[in-house]
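Objective 1b. Sequence-to-structure analysis of Alpha-1,4 glucan phosphorylase.
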Amino acid sequence: MNENATPAGAQPPQPADINHLLTQYGCGPIQFTGTSDALYERHLMFDNVVDAAATGARERYEAAARSVRDVLSQRWLRTEQTYERENPKRIYYLSMEFLIGRSLANTITNLRLDPVAQRLVKEENLHPLALIEQEPDAGLGNGGLGRLAACFIDSMATMQLPAMGYGLRYEYGIFRQFIEDGWQRERPDNWLRHPDPWEVPRPHERVEIKLGCSFEVRGGTLGVVPGRPSSVFGLPFDRPVAGYGGRTINTLRLWAAAAPDVFDFQAFSAGEFVSALAGQLSAESLTRVLYPDDTTSQGQGLRFVQEYFLVACSLADVVRRFRRINADWSALPRKVAIQLNDTHPSLAVPELMRILLDDAGLGWDEAWDLTQQTLAYTNHTLLPEALETWPLAWFERLLPRHLEIVLEINRRFLDDVRARFPGDEDRVRRVSLVDGDPNRRIRMANLAVVGSHSTNGVAAIHSCLLRTETLRDLAEMYPERFSNKTNGVTPRRWLLLANPALAGRITAAIGDGWITDLAQLEKLRPLAEDAGFRDAVRAAKREAKASFAHWLRAAEGISIDPDSIFDSQVKRIHEYKRQMLNALRVVVLYNRLRQDPAPEMAPRTFLFAGKAAPAYHLAKVIIKFINNLAATINQDPVVRHRLKVVFLPEYCVSLAERLIPASDVSNQISTAGYEASGTSNMKFMMNGALTIGTRDGATIEMAEAAGEDNLFLFGLTAGQVAGSRGWYNPHWHYDNEPETRAALDLIFSDHFSRHEPGVFEPLRDALLTHGDHYMHLADLRSYLAADRDLVGLYADADGWVRKVIMNLAASGRFSSDRTIAEYAAEIWQAGPCPVP
Ligand code: 26V
């Protein structure tokens, strides 16, 4: 390849000429000349050494992906060269999860290669969908937190920020869900079974991580051997992150663990041949699998080591890069911003201190100042069971030096607390980084707040509760550190790519500026009164629904009626998200129909999807209930033409991309005060669905932006939920609300479980016997009232689409570009570094 060759402008460029493309991306021609077809054909044939005619869909996918990678690779190199040369302040996003999904279509979209791709598809006679479906989802995350990280790196690249994501290269991502007799079952997600064309291993940039102990596999489980220090290698695998327009190609660097190739000769010569090799095995098992639980972290030793591994590899890499260009350690916060995605990477506090104290030889005060100025922390949940704490004993065994540092941070911090609040030992106990005797644990959220200059929540209400409840004492000490950064989602994947029907109509109406400046959707507001545009939006929704129904039939053998209302709730299954409240609504509607098969009513399709943590039994019972509800309703001759219930297995990014554009109704019905933000709410909004929901998370801000009248809000507010904790009694609703009672009686009469009597007893326990902690029954009646309004409006086709347009017009605020602009200006103090 020759970067300095004469620009392709010298010869008249053919639109299909690959050098024309490369020139367009500022790379100059490469020596290989030929068309993009030739590029593709070369990969097809030479990568597999087979005749092109003999290749299957998988080979064709790989050849297409590699061709796209060829187009971006020079630009990718040049992006890094530019950063090295310009030495801007770099942004590092540390996250245990990146829920990426597929990359082929997204990268083509962001590089604006669609015309080339379309021509290739035609000339090579390819089936684009079949090809795209060959790519497995990169499911390296559980839900909202991981998907947010993926949206953020897209926005940062699009905004030309010198940013990099750091995560783990799990061999197995989030488990694959299937349904057996209505129950969730799990299968491992072997997403790397085939070579992944998007990843580039960088063995020369490996880092060595030293640990205070060793690991062994004993009897099939991974055990810690204290007192025998060991080390493990972190091998980086880089993935390109193409910004929209293809100007900046940033990097997502994922670490894989590997055993040192010199294995333990001492153990070997002592005759421990097997255990020395087993040690090697266990080092590699460090990055084997993503933890599939998004709430409880207790008692998972391997998870603790994974978190340290991410931090240690990433900081070593960051510091190495920083030191290549900057002689002076004091420049660190001017050149580096590190964002911690939840507390999962909060070992960065003691690790950066260790580097500055022990490796750089700085004094405590300077090291502490640099650490705080460099790090920033985002909180993603208020659920007490999801707030991480780690046993002090594990620090002792694995990270003794880090423990020393944490205890010294705590000693100094508590001195400060005592100086500011003399005599207030209660407060000292509450804020201490160490949770009291005898089973002492380190509170990672406290560590992250104390060790950084910024703590933010992810929606206004969440940030407010964080400041006034969960982290109140710390916010009182450091009020200037706390802020809100309301989440957002990338409009490239979630509108432009996922919903071509709607995206095309928006562009036809207001031009394509919205793709990188979503606030321009405001221009649609007056078009709510334009009959032509209303028709266009209606037609787009109809198209998306038809195409989803078509896919569902082909993929799952399930038929749904595109003329019914598609009413969706898709997210992790959790009591606080209240899928059970939705199911109760359906039971009430079912009961109403059984009593009075009403003539006038739009048919409705209720779509559910989501995974339950494998050990979360009640969440699995909820899935079972939805499936049994579906089986009963869909077979009932009286109601089945009015109501249909579908539980879609294996919810993932790719399924969301299909389902969200097709939905008319978005259910966002968490118990108020529990959903930090939510992000699917935003995706539904920008895809022309109306929201029925509680005043929780970012839904509150959506209503503010679109006008409360344009959503269907119901239920207790967060304040009312907190205020009724003392006296709330679900039995009151059972005793006084006939529809609530009838619905519960029907469930507990085994109407939906004729052959499995008693299987839903855990639901009775949760909803009645144990007090209904998430207050389903408190909100059921107002949910049904809002639902009645919603169905009423649907009958008025124009009224409905007007509200859809008002939502669409107001959804600009929920672009992750806006969120990232706020992080960059207010937390990172970093700006773009355009690649020439
Ligand atoms: C906790 C744990 C603990 C143990 C093992 C694995 C694991 C994985 C994740 C978590 C924390 C999950 C917190 C989370 O996902 N929060 C969600 O963050 C979204 C993005 O900010 C937000 O929209 C959702 O409301 C919030 O629930």
